[in-house]
Amino acid sequence: MLELLGNFTVQTVVIGAVFLGIASGLLGCFAVLRQQSLMGDTLAHAALPGVCIGFLIAGSRHLGWIMAGALGTAVVAALFVQMVTRHSRIKTDAGLGIALSVSFALGVVLLTYIQGQSNASQGGLDSFLFGQAAATQREDLWFMGGVTLVALVLVMLCWKQFKLVTFDPLFAGSIGLPVVVLESVLTSMIALAVVVGLQMVGVVLMTAMVIAPAVAARQWVKQLHHMVILAVVFGIISGVIGVLISASVRHLATGPVVVLVISAIVAVSILLSPGRGVLWSWIHRQRERRTIGQRQMLTTMYKLAAHHDDPYYPVERSMLDSFYGVRTDAILKRLHNQGHVAPASHMPTEGIHWTLTDTGYSEAVRILQSIGAEPSP
Known about the structure:
Blueprint: H1 8-33, H2 37-58, H3 63-87, H4 92-115, H5 138-157, H6 159-167, H7 169-174, H8 179-220, H9 224-248, H10 254-272, H11 278-307, E1 315-316, H12 317-324, H13 329-337, E2 341-344, E3 353-356, H14 358-370
Antiparallel strand pairs: 1-3, 2-3
Helix pairs in contact: 1-5, 1-8, 1-9, 2-3, 2-4, 2-8, 3-4, 3-8, 5-8, 6-8, 8-9, 8-10, 9-10, 11-13, 11-14
């Protein structure tokens, strides 16, 4: 697969995928942390009328005009959502839904109008819906790289302000920061990431590239700068691998493959990440369940021993089974391995008996004291 990197077209698309990974990973983190994940979807759909307007202005598929138009309409949609939610009783989700549906409907109308004209250069304009990475030209990379560089510079210059507005906008406003302006800039920057990905993955799938790298990175780290770096890495990896896979299989669209790769990274992160992963949480719950069962068993045997005034009172296993309503073999064996209980001989006609060891007796006393239950003398 690596030998494909020698192909000129593949090299171009890979570089574009790298720019897409950097922009989406960088800016998606702020969208996810500000609980504006649907903002990426809205801005991606809002870019479609801008694509059509850019085409009408240029009269051809000039990527610079098309992306400039997409950026303009995406920013307008973002500012519309912010204005409506701030100055009316409409909630954020409703504002996002209005902006998404209206802008996408306008884009479809404009696209239909353009396709009804006799202009031959409009062919393939609808590829911006799902992306057409193979159509990326070297001169297009300059525009994509410039947009990515602008995003990087803005984040570096306003890192502290963006971080404060993201986590505590009320405190940011109390110390005099222009919260509304900073939030508008952050939201508009998400539009930059959308614009970078239009050629690669298209309007419909771009929301995944804005959100998925940040979601995957959030599972592994706890600090914002680590999250941003890891999201960028995930974005680049998914972009490059997706391009190479689509280039190695004929008639395989690049954009959907890139989205599937980053989705696989998200799935692995959700399952396996330490501390937050589903598998880790399941293991942790199982350990806690075993620990609670062992603590309950020790305290039960201690209370029986105290009741019979015999610290080594032998307790029949079947009685413990009846008391807990389940078989207690596994718990008793674990406690035996830990040296807290030991098998005891009793009447030959009765079942297996267990008794506390000195260590188990001391551990039971410690457990009762830790929960505020005074053990019997």
